[in-house]
Amino acid sequence: MTEQTANGAAAATEQEAQFSLQRIYVRDSSFEAPKAPQIFRQEWKPQVGLDLNTKHTQLEGDFHEVVLTLSVEVKVGDEVAFIAEVEQAGIFLISGLEQGAMAHTLGAFCPNILFPYARENIDNLVVKGSFPALMLQPVNFDALFAQEMARQQQVAGNA
Description:
Elements: E1 2-4, E2 10-12, E3 18-32, E4 46-58, E5 63-76, E6 79-95, H1 99-128, H2 141-158
Antiparallel strand pairs: 1-2, 3-6, 4-5, 5-6
Helix pairs in contact: 1-2
């Protein structure tokens, strides 16, 4: 959008925000069943532990890579039944956002897009390992982002 100035020249106004998903891909995945095949003979009362992490890197220009890592460790009693990990990544074109909106987009919005893909990949690994399907519960990335921002403000206030 342009506006005419007093001398007739066009001046560019505020840049419009732009968001575009370019690619979603698996960056890394692994599956371990250290107690197989003995674990299959035990009563299946799993204890599921989930570790979730996100990171982002600015690529050239307005392109950003966001990586969502899901690590799942399932135990039966004291023994590890399996460990499954997926690094689900995406390349996003993001421009025209102010700093706070950019942080939220990279820290919550993009991971929210990646999560269903990561969840499906974890489930596929688990099923291919001959264990019962594992459908992880949805994650509220907005709440996690807000908690992290509050933690960072508290740390900055105590410094």
